Amino acid sequence: MVAPAVIFTFVLGLLPMITSLGWSFLEYDLIRVQQTGTPFVGLENYKEVLSDGRFVRSITNTFLMTGLVIAFAISLGLVLAHVMHSNYRGRAIVRVLICAPWFVPPVVAAAIWMWLLNTDRSPINALLMDMGLIDSNIRFLTDSSTWGPFSVPLLSVTAVRAWNGLPFIVIFILAGLQSIPRDLYEAADVDGGNLWHKFRYVTLPLLKPVLGVLIMLLLITGIGHFEINYIMTGGGPQDLTNVMAVYSYLQAFNFFRFDLASAAGGVILVLTGIICALYIRGQLKNRDDR
């Protein structure tokens, strides 16, 4: 009974991954493949990729955007999870509204936000102008000015990614909240604890296992994130929103360098593997301490 799922995973997951890893050790230039073939070059593709300033910039952007998404989405998710967990009239409607982004595929969400953040036709710009907060349109996706590693396009795309992943985070945290016995909150009330004390000394410690799993999942998906960055900006302007997955895609399908694209994919695999290994090690250590 397990065989169909295993075969499906192998054909669509493991086999392409193994094939891509194999290409990363070959010279696989699609334009020249008929003349030069695909000779073995060892680690040369990895050396070329890691010495490419665009790829190094994409690594920085990947971890910066992933960190911002995790920090913002989990902070907001904790608040919204408490809102969904509380008892009040109209809670069902609020839950549906909070989970609404989950029903929108990332591709569709990216297209919608591209229109909302369009420089000339953005309703957000129109609203800010009507409120007198800005004098000219904000170029949410095309402004190339920077403040260190930050830029308006990077923050805009990061916000969209956080919005799209927020329902998953809220549901995850809500499940953790529902597993906390209410007796602990009642005991905190008897001891004179306020909302902050209950959150600091009851909720947060008991949510640590849930938040640990959540952060690990968000790190893995964040490092390999592709669709929203590619659709909204294509990695631009001037590589300000370029991430590793977009760099890999552009190398393969814009420049036809499947070897460099595979090497970039190999770096992504190694980084996610390190995160998984550290998480598993931490879990095993916690189990031994018990």
From TrEMBL:
<dbReference type="InterPro" id="IPR035906">
    <property type="entry name" value="MetI-like_sf"/>
</dbReference>
<feature type="transmembrane region" description="Helical">
    <location>
        <begin position="260"/>
        <end position="280"/>
    </location>
</feature>
<keyword id="KW-0472">Membrane</keyword>
<dbReference type="InterPro" id="IPR000515">
    <property type="entry name" value="MetI-like"/>
</dbReference>
<keyword id="KW-0813">Transport</keyword>
<dbReference type="GO" id="GO:0005886">
    <property type="term" value="C:plasma membrane"/>
</dbReference>
<keyword id="KW-1133">Transmembrane helix</keyword>
<dbReference type="GO" id="GO:0055085">
    <property type="term" value="P:transmembrane transport"/>
</dbReference>
<feature type="transmembrane region" description="Helical">
    <location>
        <begin position="7"/>
        <end position="26"/>
    </location>
</feature>
<feature type="transmembrane region" description="Helical">
    <location>
        <begin position="93"/>
        <end position="116"/>
    </location>
</feature>
<feature type="domain" description="ABC transmembrane type-1">
    <location>
        <begin position="59"/>
        <end position="279"/>
    </location>
</feature>
<feature type="transmembrane region" description="Helical">
    <location>
        <begin position="62"/>
        <end position="81"/>
    </location>
</feature>
<dbReference type="Pfam" id="PF00528">
    <property type="entry name" value="BPD_transp_1"/>
</dbReference>
<feature type="transmembrane region" description="Helical">
    <location>
        <begin position="206"/>
        <end position="226"/>
    </location>
</feature>
<keyword id="KW-1003">Cell membrane</keyword>
<keyword id="KW-0812">Transmembrane</keyword>
<feature type="transmembrane region" description="Helical">
    <location>
        <begin position="154"/>
        <end position="177"/>
    </location>
</feature>
<protein>
    <recommendedName>
        <fullName>ABC transmembrane type-1 domain-containing protein</fullName>
    </recommendedName>
</protein>
<comment type="similarity">
    <text>Belongs to the binding-protein-dependent transport system permease family.</text>
</comment>
